[in-house]
Every structure is written in C-alpha cells, then in structure tokens.
Design goal:
The structure is a homotetramer of 350-residue chains.
Chain A: E1 2-5, H1 11-23, E2 27-32, E3 37-42, H2 51-54, E4 59-63, E5 83-86, E6 89-91, E7 95-101, H3 108-121, E8 125-127, H4 145-158, E9 162-165, H5 169-178, E10 181-184, H6 192-201, E11 205-208, H7 215-226, E12 233-237, H8 255-262, E13 267-269, H9 271-275, H10 278-290, E14 295-299, H11 317-333, E15 337-338, H12 344-347
Chain lengths: 350, 350, 350, 350
C-alpha cells in the first residue's frame, strides 16, 4: 500500500502517517519525491483497512498495490481450479462446458422436453430457475420447491447435472439437496449472508458478476465463499450496466482473460442475459469461447414464444443445435474441445 | 404498451401479435405508420410480462408506456407519504431530517459520544451500523446484536430514533426489535427475500439505491415492500457507479426531483457514501437540500482517524455542527426548515 | 510514478525497469515489499510517458502519483483564477454568475426578446447558439454568422456579454470577433485542434466536460488551452452519460468541489443540458450554487414550445425569474451573492 | 413517433399536441388507453425534431419508433456495403481484414520494419498514426506530414493500403493525399465539422465509436458522412468507458451483430485500444472475428518497449504472426476466411 501525501504536507503529517502504520503492525517506508512524499506500507497481507489512514491530515490518496483477495488469487495458487459438477463433468479444464435450458422451470413436460432437447444437441448440464429474482413483484416468481423436484426428475431422465439459483440461505439448502450447482445471481453478488451460506454448504457455486461489479468486486465476493472453506466456485460474466439501450446489458468478454490472469477459478459466460437479444446469443456465445471462456450458459426453450420469462432471449432448439456445432469448431480452432454430454453413448438419440 | 413491428413485418405476423395480446386478456390496437406498424396494448395494468411478445416473429421492439410499479407511483397516490420514525419525527413533510452518526458501532463509549455529539449539533436521528456489508471478508464486519443493544442504549440516552442496516431476514427481525428504521443497503436493493421480509415486518424501511439501479429499478424494489402491505418506505440516493475514479461514487442528486415527480415516497440523500470524500460531504449535503431532498444521512465520527470503517468520509464533530447551520440556511432559502432534534428542550446541552 | 512489479518478477526484470527509468532521465528507487517489489520514479515533472514502462516484462501496473496536468493544477497555482468576461463581470470570485438565454439564436426578435427578458430577471450574461452541434444531420444546425451578428446586436441592446459555441478553428475566430466567451462543447472537449486554436486566440473560453470525460480528462483538455498561453478558461459541468434513461444526462455536481480542490480555474454548471428536463432545471440550478459552483448556465426561451431546439429543457421566462430569486437566497446562505447584471442601474426595467 | 400524455392530461392538452403535429406536416393519431392517452405521429421520415413537442403541457414522454438515421439504415438499404480500400482489398464481404501496424509512425526504419513484418505475417492493410490525439499536450503528438510521407513509402514497399487518422479538415485533405482510408478517432466521433469534411472528400472513412457513444449515436455520425454523398464508411468498435479500471476501455463486441442488423455498413473491432492490455489483445481479436466482425485493427510494434506511444498494448511481431494463424482458424469455423495480403504471391516471403 502506498500513502501519497499532499504536495506541501508537513514533516509532522508524514511522521504521523508512519506512526499509524507502525501502530497497525506494519512497516512504514517514507519515499520523498520531487513533488511530494509517499509512504510505503510494507508487510501488507491484503487485510489492511485503509480508511483509517485516508482520514489522516495531509494524505492525498491511498493506493492499493496488493490485491485485496488472497484465496481467489492466482498469484498464490497458480494451478487452475477444476470444479467437478457431475459424473465426468469438470469445469475449468481443456473442455468447455455448455450449460443450457429454459429461464424458468414451468411444468414437468416443459422441463423434460427442454432437458432431452439440449441433451440431444450436446449440452453438458441443465439450467432452469425454480426461484426467480424478478425486478417486478408482479412477474412470475418461479415454482419454488416443486421446480427443484422437476429439475431432479430431469436429471434422472437425462443424466445432466443441474444448475439452479438460490436467493437466500433457506433456498440454498434446498438447491443443494436437489441440484448440483448453486447459482448466486447477479443481484445477489454482494449478498454476503448468502455468500457465507453457500460457502458453508460446500457444493459447487456458480457466482454471477453483478451489474455494476468490477472484476475486483467479483473476486472479493468469491473470496467470501472460499474463506468459508469452499473452493468449488465457478465465476460467470453475464453483462454489466451500460449507457447504451441497444442491448439489455453489455457483455464484457474481456473479463474472461482478465479473470484467468488474476484468479485460478474457472469463468464462463452467459450471453443470454449478457445481451438479452436472441439474435445476439449465437455470435456472442462463439465470441466467449474464442476469448477462452471455460464454458457458456445458454437459455433454450422448447417454445420461446410461450415462455413465462425471458422468451425474447431464449434460443429455439434448432438454433441451439446449430450453435453447439459452431462452438465445437471454435473450440477446436484454439486447441480445446466441447465437453461431451454425460453418459453420452446410451442417450445420444435424446 | 406498444409493440413496434419490423419494417416489412407481414400481415400474419401483425395478426399473431394481436392474437397473443387478446389471449393475454388485453385489447390490441394496430396502428399502421408510414414506415412500420405498431400494435398498442390497451388495458395494461402494469403487470403485463412483455417477454412473450418480444419473442414473436416480426417484432422489432416493445415499448413500455405504463409504469411497471403501481403502489409506489404518484400517479395513483398523489399525496406524498409521511413516514414517522420517532416521537415527533416525520420524514417527507416540510421539515428536512438529518440522520447522523458513525459508519459502525464500535463500542459503548464511541456510540454514546457520537450520539450525544450529533444530538447537540442538531441531528434528528442516529445512524450506526451493527451488521456491516463489506466488500472484503477480512474487513470489520460489525458488532452484530451487541451493536444493536448499544444503539438502543444511545436512543435511551439521547431520544434519537435509530436507523441501522439489516442484511438478511434474521437480521431484519433483530433490527426491528432494537431500532426504529430498518435500512436495506445498496448491495441488497434487489435482494428480494430481504425486501419481502421487511415488507412483512411493517417497520419503517430506508431503501438505498443500488450502485447500478435505475430510478425505475429503485421504485420496483420499493414496490416489493409496498406489495407486502408496508407503506413506510424512505428512499435514499447514495451515489451510483461511474467511470470517473475521482470520487467513490457519483451522487445523482437529480434523482431527488425525479423520484418526487414519479412517487409519493420521501427521498433523502447520503453524501457520505455518495462521494466517499470528507471534503465533498459538506457541499453535497447542501446541494441535496437545495435540490429538495427530504433529508440527508451523514457519517460523523468522534475521532475519524481512529474509525474502524469509512474514517476517510466521516465528518469531524465540529464540521458537522457547521454543516447543520448551513443546512438550516439553505432549507430556509427554499421555504423549508430542518426538523428539530426530538425532545429538544431538556436535551439541548447534549 | 510507481511501477508495481508482478509477484515473482525476477531481479533482472526489476533492474531493467530501473535502467529504463534512468535512461529516460529520472531516478529509480526500488522498494521491495513483503509480496512484491515496486520501483518509484523520482523527478517526475508530469510529462513522463508511461507506455514504454508498462510494456516491460514483469511489470504488473504503473501507478501515477503526480497529476498529468501542471498549469491547470492548484498545487502549483494556489490562487483561484478570475476570468473577466465583460465590463464588471468576473467569473471565479465571490459572486456567482448566471448565464442565460435560448439554446439557439433563431431570429432577431427571438434573441432580443430573450436577451431583454433574462436581463430584466437578473442574468449576468447571454447564451445562444449560432453554430449548433446536433446528433442528427437533419436537425436545425443554427444560423451561423448571421446568428453571431444577432448576438452582437443583443449585446449592444442589453449590455450582456455573449457566450456562444464554436465547432472548429474558423468558427472560433468568428466567435472571437462577435462574442465574449468562446464555448467549446462537450462533444469537442477532446478536439485538440480546436483546443489549440482557442488557446492561441486568447479570448475567454468556456470548456464543457465531455459526456464520458473524467475530471482528469477535463483538466488535461484545459491544459491544452493553458499550454498555448491562454489562462482565461472557465470549466463547465453539464452531465455525463449514465445507464439511467430517467434523465438525458447525469449532472455530476460533486465535480464542482473536486475541480475547485484540484484546479484554480472557475467551474460553473449547466443544469439544462445536465438534466434535459425543464422541471429538474430549477432544483438542480439551486443545488449547483449550494455545492459552490461559480455560476450556472440556463436555457431560457421566450416561447419554449416554439423553440427550434431543446424546447423541452428551456425555462419559461417567469420560471427563470423565480429561479434567480431562489439562487440569490441560496448564494446568501453560503456567504456569496449573485453578480448583478452589467450596468444594472439604467437597464433595470428591461 | 409516439407522444405519451401524462395520466390526467386534459382533452385540450391532447388536442394541442395533435394540432402541433399537424402544423409540422404530419398526421396525428390519438390512442386513448386504460391509464393514459398516447398520440401517434404518422408520416415520420426520421427528421422530426421532437423537442418542440416535448415542451407541450401534459406531455409525459416522447418515444421514437422510427430510426433517426436513414442512409445508414439497413431497413432502407438491405444489401451490405462493400468498401474497397486498396487493390483487391474490400471490407464488408466474406473475407475479414486485418489492419495492423504501430500506434505512431516514429521513423523510416520503424515504419518500414513494421510494415514488412505485418505484411509477412499476413496483414491486409497498414495502420500508423501521423497526427496523434493525446490526452496530454505534453505527450508525443506524431510526426505530422512527415509521418504521412513515410506511410506512403511503406505502401510503395509492401503494397499495403494505409489507414491513418485525421484530426481536422486540413489534416483530412493531407491524409487523403497520402493514404487510403481516413480514420476519424473516437474523440472526434461527434466533431461534425470533421465528419462533413471527410464526407465531402469522398475517400473511404474509418469511423471509430466514441467512448460514450451509443450505437445510435455512431450511426448518426455515419449519417453525417453519408449525407455528404460518401458511402465508403467502415465503422469500428474500440471500447467504451466503463466503471471497471481492470481494462482501459470495455470492448463492446455485441456492437458487431447489433450494427450488422441495423446498418449495411461494415464494422471492424480494435482490441488494442479496446482493452489497452497486450495480453488481452489476442483473445479479444479472436472473439471479434467469432462474433462476426468484418475485420480487426491491431497495434503491432517491432520493439514495443521502445514505442513512443501505446507500447503496453502493442503486440510483438511473433505474437501477431501467431494471432493471424488463429484468426484464420476462427474465420474458417464460421464459414469465412481472412483476406490475403494484397499482391501476396511475389511478397509472400516478406
């Protein structure tokens, strides 16, 4: 950490900064410059709380050199983490995963049709919402526990591992019971009570980036889960808020290589929420894999124009089947492959 | 709602849109234009889910004319809502409120000193965090229930109503027990489980705007609380994310008159988090009152350079005292006044 | 400047950074830390180009400690700059200025009516566009030189100094000939050819902040003008791009105290473009003055619903007159006053 | 265009809106709803100026249904525009182009080495700045006309067409004389004097998206050029401003399919400026091609750590050579190919 003093800071002010740093248990190293003095804090273990120093007279700025997250950092854990989410399905290696399915679970028939369809087309895992965070209290809020039971049924039918969202601690326990990956949605990325709960539960977690979260914020939220002893965290870029209404969100694919440099955790992309526009899902899913993402998460609905939520961004089944073919070609072009559906042989007809 | 068809949409596509609208129980009103046809949806009660229509072939765009929130809307509830938060203290009328205190409750001595100080300077209510949402799991997380008990003690000592944050349903019940206003923080603005919980509890709620929340999003989150039967909601502008690192957040004071036009709920501003810089708190608190805010929420600490959190944005007690004087003058300039401290007479010495 | 090395950077990499710094004519000061080494660059005169160092192997990040602008900086020029824009009218002192008038000059009658009206209500200077930067090539582009001549006529009639925009070097010379302050619009804030031209011309310049410009960018653009020997620069906050469509722009009033800390140049606010909504202009103009702005710039039109541009954000004359009264009260509340109209005595009837 | 009236607007207010619409030469079509009335404007040719209507009493909002650009719109010009930029080099077809070279022209040796290197690796055109828009007046501003002459020399040596930036009308004429494509930079995207000038000159134009420009803004700026009779416009996504300091800009690759849906003009991506980080250029260039971009523009420098500008984001020649191989594989995966270097046969050894 570097404490930059104001031009014109007095010797006493500089000494007081140094004294506070020492009092906090670190070493202070003043560094006079041509225009202003800076005081380095040596020994920072990433847990220094700067606010006390920011408040000292004569301090212009506090600059953080050390990353505030530790367990999520690749500097301290160079090997990439592999997260197994089902029999033979691992996220984070040379095979990219394709998680697909409807926005919401709507009925037994809908989720089974969807699951069989995406399985036949080549998906690796099934997504589907049982607890739905909706901006309006009057929108469809999901089937709840009934939805989880239907997802478990779809897993028995297709072998696909289940990825589904939890919105609070109680829901996280229910998802852990019926599903394979607990999703923490963008709106809850900084819901620390929920992060601690999924950390304690210990199942794989899919953590989505918040709409205004920096990558630093995202990794700090992952750190909350890791700090509870759960390393099975998959990150997910799903678009951030932008000034341009041309798309629902702005899918920040550069986050993929940035996260892979800073952290050992796998990162996938969700071009369905990331664009909010069906026609843009295919090109942006291809782009995500080309950028090096460890997978994609795609909304597919048997009949999008009858969907209870997000119909406008869900692919038709035949669009999804074509997309899987393209993703295989793109993955091949950069030396990777698409993970096969679990237990592919007996189920390949779908 | 207006469904804009693509230039070149076929008659069948237009008829299908109309049929779906009728099937949903509304009236469809096609409106052919020189360049493209639009189909109006008549009878919208604000609960139409557009995603199904967006997915129909030939649809270019769906434009929402009706506001998606109802109970929070001023169109349907023209009289402004008054929220009483303590004996004789009401938010939303001609008197602006000043909620002040430290970021976190740190100790009995700290919170009592702070409470007496802000009370003496003219504050209307006391703020102080017992449950702290911190970006890093390694930062001070608050004293929890012990902190709530100390806040209750400070209220007994000073008469100031207590505003403090809850981060989950369990915490909300604890805050309701010890405090007067349950704060929902910016990071939890779309934590719908928490919003429903504070809606059911029925105590006054201070709902902070999320870092990337539009005003529409903020009012929809308020709608979640109102939909549970709790109308005691105070909104709070506390800065949004911006591209400029010059301040921690970008305080959007225009939100004040915009919310007051769209909603009957009171809105205050938090220039401490809204700027993150002590020197900017005073001018921006003045600006908030000049813009018509129903109050301000200010971080004040007896000894900011020893604070366990947010020291750099906390005012020194004497700065706060000067600020209250200035706010009185500004309020007077626009025909308002600052609400007196509760039970001012016997406690005026502080 | 501080060059932060990657954790695990080799001694050779650190030495190479130091060697390049020395080669560039500065001193290198390595600073080993517990987790990584940083190398300080001493002797930075604000003109160091970091890109060469960023490219060196082992470098994680380059952190700028010194401000990149010099002549615009208050550190090197503590006394605030006063910019005289007309007889007895100075921007930057204890009197706040009110620059008012229509978006565009439309006709002799329109501009004279407008000028007399704002003069009578208490304006200090007249605004009005002759060259209009419009997003669409099909929108009204202004009257050009004819508009400048009408502005000069309005000045003769009312004594109000003229503030009007130039869009290129040729236009800047024309504005300098007919007007008093050359406005550089938000879209041209980083049009360096234009900045150099207005720097050379030497007349007062009103430099508006670009829609995505940081305050650092704004001060660097001012530096372009100052570097040509022209210190007569007034900065103007006029709103930045935001994710919220509730207002046309997001007026960033915190920019006012931030600029006043960093720079000696005066700064005013334009709540008309900053909000784009007539009803929000009055509260935000009040807020700007309460935040300490050196003035406001307000669109006023004799008949806004007949305006050729920006009618929706222009005040009616009677609204403006009330606003001036409120601004006087607000200015008084913080120990300032509103500058009188030039030559007020003989013209006070309007 | 749809004029949405306030809930509670009077019949007179609605009739006045209708009257103004008729007065402007269009048809008014009132459309009463359950909650509020809307008035449709029929006959809109995309040139309606809404500000006059926004200002009318009782108007809540004006919603634009028709696109404000015409000549740039794909609705009116469905065939995609092909822009030839050199012998046998066309932008916008099935072959993607790779424009590569240093940020700035620095010397004869540097530009010739760079040109030969990128030519040998497979580039289609040469980039290099002679006039450099720099945030700081103290940064290297380019070699000017001398730089243009060196670029022309490099073209004679390698056959590569030249893409280089102009910052004002005078510069545009010089670039037209020495180069093949006039680049308008992000900072000048709304410099309308420059847009009109390059429209009149009639040479191919590379128009970069501004840092806070919506796609609508970008297409309106293109419209300025087209309106002067020049259809040879190539658009370029180069990253927008974001709240996340993790990258210099946020490369918005979804802009590629969005622009291709809305406009017939080709669009390329610049991952060098779009990320500002050398290590991210390769994955994001791949992603751009996978998203369907018509080309990429890449900064490559013979010796990046000696570059006078943007060294940190320039590829080493061997990195660029590998990238070209990957781009060929990605283009193949989606049924495209990379355009060969002009006159490839005799020069293929480099």
């Amino acid at each position: 950490m570097l404490v930059v003093m104001e031009h014109g800071a007095t010797t006493e002010q500089i000494e007081r900064v140094a004294a506070v740093i020492e009092e906090m248990g670190y070493q202070a190293r003043p560094m006079p410059g041509a225009q202003r003095t800076a005081v380095g804090l040596v020994g920072n273990d990433g847990r220094v709380d700067a606010s006390r120093i920011e408040a000292l007279p004569g301090v212009a700025e506090v600059i953080h050199v050390t990353q505030p997250y530790k367990q999520a950092s690749r500097e301290w854990h160079p090997e990439r983490t592999l997260v197994p989410i089902g029999p033979g399905v691992v996220v984070g290696g040379d095979q990219v995963v394709i998680i697909a399915g409807p926005c919401s679970v709507e009925s037994e028939q809908q989720i089974l049709t969807a699951a069989r369809g995406v399985r036949a087309a080549g998906a690796t895992a099934l997504r589907g919402g049982a607890f739905k965070p909706r901006s309006s209290p009057y929108s469809f809020q999901g089937l709840g526990v009934k939805g989880l039971e239907l997802l478990a049924l779809a897993r028995r039918e297709t072998g696909l591992p289940i990825v589904t969202e939890a919105m609070d601690e109680e829901g996280a326990h229910l998802v852990a019971e019926h599903g394979d990956v607990i999703q923490v949605g963008a709106r809850n990325m900084q819901n620390y009570s929920l992060l601690k709960a999924v950390g304690r539960i210990g199942k794989p977690v899919l953590l989505k980036r918040g709409m205004a979260a920096t990558i630093n914020d995202l990794l700090l939220s992952a750190e909350y889960i890791l700090a509870e002893g759960n390393e099975q965290v998959i990150l997910c870029e799903r678009g951030v808020r932008s000034f341009d209404p041309a798309a629902r969100n702005l899918l920040d694919l550069t986050a993929v290589p940035i996260v892979q440099k800073l952290s050992h955790l796998p990162i996938i992309a969700d071009p369905s929420h990331g664009t909010g526009l069906r026609e843009k899902v295919t090109p942006m899913a291809r782009a995500a894999i080309a950028a090096g993402a460890d997978g994609v998460m795609i909304e597919v609905h048997p009949t999008p124009d009858r969907a209870k939520s997000d119909g406008g961004q869900s692919l038709y089944p035949e669009q999804f089947a074509r997309l899987v073919m393209e993703l295989r070609a793109i993955a091949g072009a950069i030396g990777k492959s698409v993970a096969p559906s679990p237990g592919t042989a007996p189920l390949s007809i779908g």
